[in-house]
Amino acid sequence: MLPYAFTIFLSAFLLFLVQPLIAKQILPWFGGSASVWNTCMLFFQSILLAGYAYADRSVQQLSAKRQVSLHTILLLLSLLSLPIIASESWKPQGDEDPILHILGLLLATIGLPYALLSTTTPLIQAWYWRSFRQAVPYRLFALSNAASLAALLGYPTLIEPFFGGRQTAIVWSIGYALFALLCIWVGWKSLNQASTPVANETALAKNEEAAAQTKEAAAQNDESAPLPDAAENAAAQAAPPAVTVRLLWIVLSALGSAVLLAVTNHLTQNISSVPFLWVLPLALYLLSFIICFDRPSWYHRGIWGVAAAISLPLMVYFADSLALFQVSGLYAAGLFVVCMFCHGELASLKPHPSQLTRFYLAMSLGGALGALSIAIAAPLLLSGYYELHITVAVIALVMLWRSLEAPWIWRIGSAGLVVGVIFLVHQELKEYRLGIREMERNFYGVVRTRDYPSEPGFRYMLHGSINHGGQLQGEPFEMMPATYYSPSSGYGRLFEAMPQGPKRVGLIGLGAGALAAYAQSGDQWVIYEINPVVVDLAKKEFSFLQRMKAPYEIVLGDGRLALEREAPRQYDVLAVDAFSGDSIPIHLVTREAMAAYVKHLAPGGVIVFQATNRFVDLQPVAKRLADSFGLEAVLIEDSPEFTTGPERWYLHTDQIVMTKNKALLKHPAFKDAKTISLREDVGVFTDDHSNLLRILKH
Questions:
Q1: Which class is 484-695 in CATH?
Q2: Has residue 592 got a pLDDT over 80?
Q3: 1-195: CATH architecture
Q4: Distance CA 534, CA 72 (A)
């Protein structure tokens, strides 16, 4: 058994190690968006489905020798795609469909190796069952999930902080080559074991004994006598599972996958799209698989069903909460217990081992459908972030479905849960749309505009749950910079301190366009914005761009990639103010990104980092970057305390000003600027090395 188990363990470890590895490689190319991971998960689940389909067809239609021969050829061919490093030619130019581009990139880079790794668990289990029919192979599935969990937890804690992405990709490629050779050896070994009488001696003896018992029971016409193993095996192989059972295989798998991605999307759009926040929900998801498939006694419907029934309404109620750290534990617990219910019910429906490849195929189909619903269907069909609400409601309905054969108390409780969840979903979605003027959704998230009834009136832009700037309504307030751009903010003090005369200004991240209030005649402004929806709503719902005193150019696409392609623009001010929800695009605060910014600075030019964030402390990161390029960095904190009038819309801000122009920093506007202390535990962030855990606020 050991060679089979080790092959499955190694394949699963590599399978889940490559997921954050390749996703992190391409994340900077697509704006650091949370949707990058969702799209990657869609690819992973789809290729897993293809791998399971291949395993099922091979087992069902090919002889044992042809299975092994075909797999050997494919494994050897896959070695030609190593090492798994994304080609620079796949970098987007700004006008591509990001989802299709990511899927094509992943297919070209890791397609065949990932597909063959995906086949390993069902295929090796089938080979094991063929050789040792006395042993049930489902615990090998739990082993594969344990290896997956080890890879996921190991990547952000033991690999990412110490090794570069390129180094890790090369080591992974070596590991894959060893796996391919091991898998080939195990495959041919299984043929010899299957043809060796000694290998099946115990199984044959048991089957003969069971057949004798069956014959005796039949002769006595004792219908109450339990069928022995041989009879059970024969019956199981002769009678495929019912359609409703096979449908449940798909539905339960799809719901587990959907709730996983919905919760992950919620976390990453509000903190940062980084491997650490990708793998934690996925680890909980896999842990539920391990527990449920290791042994049946671990899952008890009465316990986990009640826990899920408690969690579902709470997840709906807090779905749009700003107090993310306060509810993150709830989301983690909710995700785990819901997955325990889905996967526990799934494990209770697992078929005879002769049907295991079809079982895994159905599970992978469900996983792919769940990923498809969150990554593709939701952005296309839903104008807002509703998928978590809908997923929770469907899970409640499935719980009611599974309770129909249970005692009446369970049926009543499940029906009450459905009514309660649907009511909460309706109320939360009603609140989500309250006062909304415009709402649009695309790959980069949900953008809304809302009017706040005040005197004077105020209109603001929401990305996720976060205010992304706004505008006072009516004369003479419309060109008054508010929110994060007030006269006392870092931006306001910078423009006050700068010499009079024309300036070249670059802005990464448009928002509502409030910074344009500082534009003066003769200036030249270039605005980099990755999300076309933001551009459309800034022009449609706000008047900053129409009324600004200087001409402007909008460059659509990721600001960093655009700056890397462009010739030096000689900016006097370059503002980095790009967020997705409250999420920090980490690729904009790395040494590679800083090199692009510095390339475009005029002598004495200034870089401004918007560091206002509830969850992430960017100060030590910015300080390291500034020191690396010989810039002085100071922090401008602004905490206005107005409660009435237009000034009430001056918000607390933390903005970091970086420059070599020491004379500028001596201006009275910067008299209360604060120096930023170095932190020994925070090094220079690079595209290969970054540590979100070090800079999380407590």
A1: alpha beta
A2: yes
A3: Up-down Bundle (1.20)
A4: 50
